[in-house]
Write a structure and sequence with these properties.
mainly alpha; 4 helices; about 110 residues; single chain
Length: about 110
């Protein structure tokens, strides 16, 4: 009997096992890197539409980058936002990967 994979492992597999999903993750990572190096460039904000709509849910929380306060509160806010952005990017890449698999499988079934 085959052991069940964890949900996180399946999510990571969908997000990394095809070129469109990997490309989405690569563009998102490059955009976040550009945001640190050149925050005024247009490419620095490319991660926003790539991680939407999930990433926009964090707006409703009372803390995040730019929150008043300093020290531990600011570190917690930036850390939470970074983890949330990573999770949103993985979920969107997994959705793109699942869509890619569905299209490929439906084409194979149609031509079989």
């Amino acid at each position: 009997m085959k052991p069940k994979d964890s949900r996180l492992r399946r999510l990571l597999a969908l997000a990394t096992d095809n070129w469109p999903a990997r490309g989405c993750l690569a563009v998102c990572a490059a955009s976040i890197g550009t945001a640190f190096v050149a925050p005024d460039s247009l490419f620095a904000m490319a991660h926003v539409p790539l991680t939407a709509p999930l990433s926009t849910m964090a707006i409703t929380l009372p803390f995040g980058p730019g929150t008043e306060g300093g020290g531990a509160a600011q570190v917690l806010a930036v850390g939470f936002s970074a983890v949330w952005l990573l999770l949103c990017a993985l979920v969107n890449a997994a959705a793109l990967g699942a869509l890619t698999h569905h299209v490929r499988d439906s084409r194979a079934a149609r031509h079989a």
